What does this fold into?
Amino acid sequence: MKNESLGTVETQYFHLPGDLQLESGKKLSSVVLAYETYGSLNRDRSNAILVCHALSGDAHAAGWHAGDTKPGWWDTMIGPGKALDTDSYFVICSNVLGGCKGSTGPSSINPATGKPYGIDFPVITIGDMVKAQKMLTEHLGIKKIFAAIGGSMGGVQVLQWAVSYPGSVGKAIAIATTSHSSPQQIAFNEVGRIAIISDPKWSEGDYYSRSPPVHGLALARMIGHITYLSDDSMQQKFGRRLQGKSKYDFDLAFDFEVESYLHHQGQSFTKRFDANTYLYITKALDYFDLTRNGSLREGLKDVQAKFLIIGVSSDWLYPPYQSREIVAALSANDKEAIYREIESNYGHDAFLLETGQLNYLITNFLSHVVVADIMKKDIISIREGISIEETARVMCREEITHLPVVSQNGELAGIITSWDISKAVALKYTSPEHIMTRDVITASPDETIESAAKKMQKMNISALPVIDGNRKILGIIGSDEINRLIGGYI
Ligand code: SAM
It folds into this structure.
């Protein structure tokens, strides 16, 4: 199986039309989202996968920027032959609203003052981030995304998508995440924020023309980084090894490898991240809560997506019980939800590192496409007894070749195709009864598309009405939709 890199990619910029109305009641104008796309959008714009990034991520999820020494942050997962296979899917990733990697955030210029927003930037929520992403997908001409996927803060965005835009997400893959931030998560976020605002260089967030609060931001990152690892992984990675020495110095400088590692992580983070963005994004995470009236079941009752929820065995920041809670609430609502747990000792970071297990789980979940996922739902049908002329007029007007016929009680009674109309003209038939096929071959909504395709191939027909157990029509599936998805199957 090929497993190639996407090569050089470029970030693009979407300028949101009009103001963005925020959950807080405030508005943001001149909002920009930085985004990247990989692969091609198919003709009916049904193959888009939205990748949502975590706290310190950005729009550059895969491929290489010119001159870079490493690829995008999820390059192991996105590309030809990978789990998010760009030969089949159109992958989109945008930097979140409030971010500092090209999207509008506190370091952007406030159009009202001509200076960076700083703490004049309005407090935003995960719902606001997702709203801006929805506008981006609409701008790209996509009504419904095939799937949304993300880990950690990316996972909360995926869940928010499914709640905010139920009809617009086919599949939702949320990894190492939660349905509402726990007191422990809020507590760690608050310690990180205090580290930043206690740095005198933070200057009430107004530091863009001076030296930034690198000490505070590095400290916030060091704290955060500890929560992303596990006791086990730290034991393995560092043990009690000393850094560049063979014995203790008995002074207050650092001795251990783990200390050196954390300092390095903190320092390098300050070169690529804005301290105010850290404050705003962690605040958005704190507010994240999909429960309604204290009930997660109620909060998730209107979702329509199919879910794959993945927990990580050693994650103590977003522990697996939080993932199982989501699945329990979805199942209680009779929604389709699968729970899988990655066996890993990497802790929370496993969502970026355990690519083997993730590739396997995600590939299987995405490739399991059933008829209901791709059938046309806006079905045109005619009542039994309608004349051949009227039937032909409906087919011309609606530009369709297959027209299901329903009986007085709304059940599927037959099918007439343009081929049948030609036959009626050639043989001068006058009654629809002469041309209607009563013995209709149908598909069920939960049938795999491979099975539906085989039926069409075997009977040399190009569309199947999709019916429920009472023979009521739910949709129609044609060879065109299947071919677009799985490439020349029939
Ligand atoms: N491949 C073409 C198509 O599907 O339109 C035409 C081939 S086939 C010989 C045409 C006949 O198949 C028509 O009489 C039509 O009514 C019938 N037909 C089309 N779809 C059908 C279905 N799902 N079940 C049963 N018969 C069907």
About this structure: Residues 401-402, 415, 417, 419-420, 437, 440-441, 460-464 surround S-adenosylmethionine (CB under 6 Å). The chain is about 35% helix and 15% strand. The chain has three domains: 12-180+273-370, 181-272, 374-486.
